[in-house]
Amino acid sequence: MSLFGTPVPFFKMQGCGNDFIVIDNRELKVPVADMPEWAKRVCARAFGVYGDGIFFLEESDDPALAYRWHFYNNDGSRAEMCGNASRCAGRLSHAIGLAPAEHVFGTDAGPIRAKVLTEGEDAGQVKVQLTPPTGIRTGIELTVDGKPLTIHFANTGVPHAVVFVDDVEAVDIMDLGPKLRYHEHFAPAGTNVNFAQVVDGSTMLLRTYERGVEGETYACGTGASATQLLAHTLGLTGTAAALTTTAGEQLKVFVEDGALFLQGAAELTFKGELYLEAMGLK
To answer: Domains of the chain by range and CATH?
Structure first.
């Protein structure tokens, strides 16, 4: 116990500007029932560390899994999967001795295979194999503000609507994003929304409005994966594409034998101690 209360170690990581607080829960053992409140308080701007989300790493009862995580958006909602966070989990778990460089861990969306790259120009990046995509639909015609809009959809661990546009920078994402996120077509759970500009057969520009964050984020790994999957399905790209996110970073997405792979940076930006009493936590 310090003068400021109970200190709890934490890590802060980012993947292409998507930032996360990470708690090693093996000894701390925060109950799952308390995790949503931790997410809201620890991720809060000014009163907490701030981040797009938080995840807790803990041992798994399944011998096929190196560990499992519990992932929450900063509004306290639990998410089945997060592509950028999965890369962060892969790299950090290897760094702290929880898992080897290549391993499988458990999420609500299913097992995720992660490989920390240690050689060449991609050293430090992480490549993850996402769970099999579901619900793929192209050419969905919706009406938004009385106007027709063509969207496409895929669930790459979490639901994603994708709109292909001529100029991604011209999109008013804070206007159109929520209208699609809460559109009755996606009720009751809603969807994440991606706006993509195809530059050529292997390059795209991407902006994402994230459910749970309720705003535009710097990057979204599952969104980039859904976008490339749908672009490839529509014949707009080949089997591999590099997507430049709002952060200016690149995410690489590969469609290989029907499986989706996501590769990109995962950086530890800092680590420190949380003081629970100051955030109203116990």
So the answer is: 7-130+267-279 (3.10.310.10), 134-262 (3.10.310.10)
